[in-house]
From TrEMBL:
<dbReference type="GO" id="GO:0005886">
    <property type="term" value="C:plasma membrane"/>
</dbReference>
<feature type="transmembrane region" description="Helical">
    <location>
        <begin position="89"/>
        <end position="107"/>
    </location>
</feature>
<protein>
    <recommendedName>
        <fullName>ABC3 transporter permease C-terminal domain-containing protein</fullName>
    </recommendedName>
</protein>
<feature type="domain" description="ABC3 transporter permease C-terminal">
    <location>
        <begin position="242"/>
        <end position="350"/>
    </location>
</feature>
<dbReference type="InterPro" id="IPR052536">
    <property type="entry name" value="ABC-4_Integral_Memb_Prot"/>
</dbReference>
<feature type="transmembrane region" description="Helical">
    <location>
        <begin position="757"/>
        <end position="776"/>
    </location>
</feature>
<dbReference type="Pfam" id="PF02687">
    <property type="entry name" value="FtsX"/>
</dbReference>
<feature type="transmembrane region" description="Helical">
    <location>
        <begin position="239"/>
        <end position="262"/>
    </location>
</feature>
<dbReference type="InterPro" id="IPR003838">
    <property type="entry name" value="ABC3_permease_C"/>
</dbReference>
<feature type="transmembrane region" description="Helical">
    <location>
        <begin position="459"/>
        <end position="479"/>
    </location>
</feature>
<keyword id="KW-0812">Transmembrane</keyword>
<feature type="transmembrane region" description="Helical">
    <location>
        <begin position="12"/>
        <end position="33"/>
    </location>
</feature>
<feature type="transmembrane region" description="Helical">
    <location>
        <begin position="283"/>
        <end position="312"/>
    </location>
</feature>
<feature type="transmembrane region" description="Helical">
    <location>
        <begin position="851"/>
        <end position="873"/>
    </location>
</feature>
<feature type="transmembrane region" description="Helical">
    <location>
        <begin position="332"/>
        <end position="352"/>
    </location>
</feature>
<keyword id="KW-1133">Transmembrane helix</keyword>
<feature type="transmembrane region" description="Helical">
    <location>
        <begin position="53"/>
        <end position="77"/>
    </location>
</feature>
Amino acid sequence: MKKRSKYQQKIWWCRLIVSVVQVLLFLFCPIILKEGKTCGARVIFTMIVDTGFQIRYILLMLCMLPALLYLIRFILLIRNKSLGVLEKLSAKTLCWLGISIFVVSVLPISPDDFSKTDIAGMMLVYCLFVFSGGIEFLYCRCQETMEDTEEEVIAAREKEKIDRQHRKKANYFPGKYPKEFYQVIRRMFRSRIKVQVLMIASEAFAAASLFIVFSMYGIMKDTYEMESSITGDGLYGLFRSLGLILILLHLVMMTMMSAWYIKEVKKDFRLLVILGIRRRTVYMQFLLEFWAGVLIAAVFGLGAGAAGASAMRMELQKGIPGGAVFPEVVTGNYFLIGLISFLILMGLSLAFNQENFIDLGQSVDRNEDVQKEERLRKGISLWIAGGLFLAALAVGWYSVREWAESRFIHILTVLAMFLLLAGGTALWMRIRERKHRYDTGLLKMNLFYHKFESNIERLFLLAVIQFLALGMFAAPMAGACIPQKIPSMYPYDIVVTAYEPELERLEAIADKYEARVTQYPMLRMTSIYGSDKIKPWRTTTRPIQWPQGQQIAISESTYQQMRKFMGKEPKKLSLQGEELHVVYQQDLSVKAHTIDWDTGRLEKHLRFGQPLEYYNPDDFRRFFPVRTIAGEERASLTGSFHQGMQDNLIVLTDSYFQENYDRITAYNRKNWETRQKMTREEWRMYTVRHPENLTEGPTTLFCMNLDDALVDQAAADLEYLNEEQDFDTVWDNNIQPFYVKSQMIVNTESEIFFTRMGNGFILLVLMILGVFQFFVKVKSEEDNWRWENIFLKRLGMHEKERKAKLRYQIRMFVLIPVLSGITGGVIFAALTAKARLYTMQETLQFAGYLGMIYLIWILVWAAVCQVMNWNIWKHVEKE
């Protein structure tokens, strides 16, 4: 038997002693029961020959199984046999006793079955049993840790000694390098010219993309940040979120590209390191090459980015009905921001490859690049089960309409893809090993048999890029491409939300311009939170959240009148009591919304009236009661003023609406004169001492249709409302007292155009990113494929078979990622269409445009794959 170390010897003696102690404790430790003193052995004998099992001895019986196992372990230790599952018996005993006592505590046992004396007597044995087992566990654990630490220290000292000897040998280079050395360096550099060109091209693309992202972000920030949410939140938020995603993708891409570049450079520098070149020289040479390439890429990339940003600016100006002038993008500030951000990006990509960079001056193993990697063999079913669970969780979460189109959910999807790709590939390889075709297909699959981790990593990155394109951005692009009749979404030339005292003057203005007026009774309803941005609570208690969502409540009769005015068929809602029906007023290109975005988004908290500046968040349900949403639809009955975020219609039963309408109109009428005398600050502070606002919002939708030539004049006459209802903008400047159809049409068409362009730009960038990664993967395997092709050719394999093998290996890195992207894309696109409340006809149009995007995407990748096949075949055929 193998000789034990001093630590293992101590552990052996500890286990031997504790085994004896535990058995003796169970059998002979005195137990004081109500009938007198006894012991475990006597209790067992009594139950066997006389009384049978008694529930009052259950605590003692819990120790019986561990005691038996300790006896078996004692015998094995004496005979120097392997302990097997009894190796960690003390830890298992502690778990067993803990779980057992918990189970006993919850069993429906009558108190009459025990006496305090019995419990106290048996608890002594139980506690001593636990105590001795715990002593063994802690002592053995301590000895094992000390042994591991000592081994690590010895190994570290040995490694440090070897490294010190290597550094002394490698750094010893007296004198100067001969001029032939510099000739060798130049020839090495020229031999890597293709690698340099590819690296500079990827860097230039990153620089150009960053310039475009920051310039477009600047345009939207300067132009739309302070305007209404239809253009501000939509366009500014769109380019901000897309910009963050692009920057993250570029960071990942350049980190991978830098790792590949260092690997290629290492092949040349390894021989020089072996010959004794100074490490400082290696690092300086690499950094000079790297940063020189970065600066060259910055010049070309920023120039290309400036041209691309100018072209996008011109297209954006053309795409806005009526024309618009955006700020210039080719400015010194944008060049400086682009250059700094690009240098930071490249610095981070190099920092994330710190180990590879350090290894550049230490690598002396010429077979390092061909070392076989360990492949996944254990726990494959757990990997696949975990991937399926995360995928199901992501789909289930996304299918909840209130959370649909939340991009952070796709973190789960990406993790699921990694687990399924790794686990699925490992399972496939295991199945192939057990079949006859394993031998015939070995040449096609040797990539994964030899370099499992590296190939799964590259396959996963390509799959993520495909999923981002086809699963995240293709659906919004398809939604923005669906044809829409934007003017028909605005049935009224001017829509005013008016207070009762304002109606007389509004009617006078309408008479002045001979407007056709339609009035609808309305109320303000406000949700507790009205933004889809998830804001963390900075305190442990619920804060007052801003903005609060302001909606328009109408009666079911008014809802039917609006549908009739639009030329739509009546729709029976069948509302009862206090049930609500929500009409989201948004176009087809806008993401799914909910009426209340608070916390879990499943409960809908709304109050009658306007937002509350102050209220007690601990009692928020009293101020914002939970409402029952009986139905939802997407339509534009008064106009899409905030694209489904605010000013949606909430339909109530006639009786429920009338009850609250009478209450609020009376309340507004009572306090109107006081409101007129208040200051803005007094208005804001009113809810500090009162549970409601002084007035609770407009009560009439005053809708006007008039001749096109008179709309601007009428709108100018309505400007007084901005001052009259100034208090109502305290909470949100986006909520306006009136909306003009012509301006709303321009805003909506602009946002649809920008959404289409923004998502199209993202798809283009993802396509280029994917092609770069695919090209890098193929180029990294090019020399290996060339050697394999020469070898198989000399063995007599036909050209057709060699071509088929090469096509299979190249196609795998296109087919699997594209199929992953399409599978995820179809699932999430279907959920997106459902969440956006598309009709059947709209869903079919959405599916048609999505299919066109997928078809174009597949054709482009098929062409890329075919071109790569031709290019690689020409190279591998050279001997």
